[in-house]
Amino acid sequence: MQNRLLSVVVVLLVVLAASPAFAQAKFDPHDFSGYWLRNSIRPKDHPPLTEAGKKAITGRHADDDVKLPTDSNDPMYKCNPQGFPRLVWEENEPIEFVMLNDRVLQLFQWERTLRELWLDGRELPSGENLENLGPAWYGHSVGHWEGDTLVVVTTGVDERAWLDEYGNPKSFDAKFEERYRMIDADNIEGRLVINDPKNFTAPWVQPPSTFTRMKPDEVEYFGWKGLFSGLTDAICAPINETNFDNRIKIPGALGIQK
Amino acid sequence: MNRAVIALLGIASIAVPLFAHHGRGATYDDKKIITANAVITEVAWRNPHVAIYMDIKDENGKVTNWGMESQNVSSLTRLGFFRNTLKPGQEITIKFNPSRAGAPVGVIRKIYDSTGKEVLSFGGSIDQ
Question: What's the pTM value of the predicted model, to 2 decimals?
Answer without folding.
Answer: 0.83
